[in-house]
Specification:
This protein has 182 residues and is mostly helical. It is built from six helices and no strands. Helix 1 runs antiparallel to helix 4 and helix 2 packs across helix 4.
């Protein structure tokens, strides 16, 4: 391993601390989901957005409850993808290697995680409302569409990180090619 591909010790220490912090956040997020009944909170929020006459027609079957809780869990745990991706990036960079396939994969994985999280947050409210009201009578079904500026920004950030990952791929190829000449 060449010196130009290694990060300074201080940066490596910061990455090590951030990796463990990200893993702690991940554990806390999972614990909070179960301890605070986050799934019900997400569904209650969607319920509050429905008009009163639509609420009156909503009925719950076992399959419908399961579907709604699965959708809520997907929405909640999609955020953990970002935390896992960040922990992976910090883990790779704590080793000090910059221009290596593992670093490139970690950065691209983080970009994809952010992009997927934003996409899920974009479509999930619509799916939950559809799940709540799909079996309502005519005129009492609901469809919500919304675009949040934060979600659009996250989509752009994910796309930028994916592009940076592609640039790192080319930089890694160049670094590997330069090692062949030395």
């Amino acid at each position: 391993m060449n010196t130009p591909t290694l990060l300074p010790d201080r940066t490596r220490l910061v990455c090590r601390v951030l990796k463990w912090l990200a893993l702690l956040i991940l554990v806390l997020m999972v614990a909070a989901y179960f301890l605070m009944d986050a799934s019900s909170s997400i569904l209650d929020s969607a319920w509050e957005g429905l008009q009163p006459h639509v609420r009156e027609d909503v009925s719950y079957s076992g399959g419908k409850k399961l579907l709604l809780h699965v959708l809520a869990a997907i929405g909640y745990f999609s955020l953990t993808l970002i935390v896992i991706g960040a922990a992976r990036v910090f883990s790779v960079f704590q080793k000090g290697v910059v221009f290596a396939p593992a670093a490139v994969r970690a950065v691209r994985f983080l970009g994809l995680d952010i992009f997927l999280f934003a996409a899920v947050q974009l479509i999930l409210p619509t799916l939950i409302v559809l799940g709540l009201t799909y079996d309502n009578g005519p005129g009492n079904r609901a469809l919500t569409l919304g675009i949040n500026s934060n979600t659009v920004i996250l989509l752009m950030i994910g796309a930028v990180i994916l592009v940076i990952g592609q640039i790192l791929t080319q930089a890694t190829d160049i670094a590997h090619e330069n090692e062949q000449f030395i």
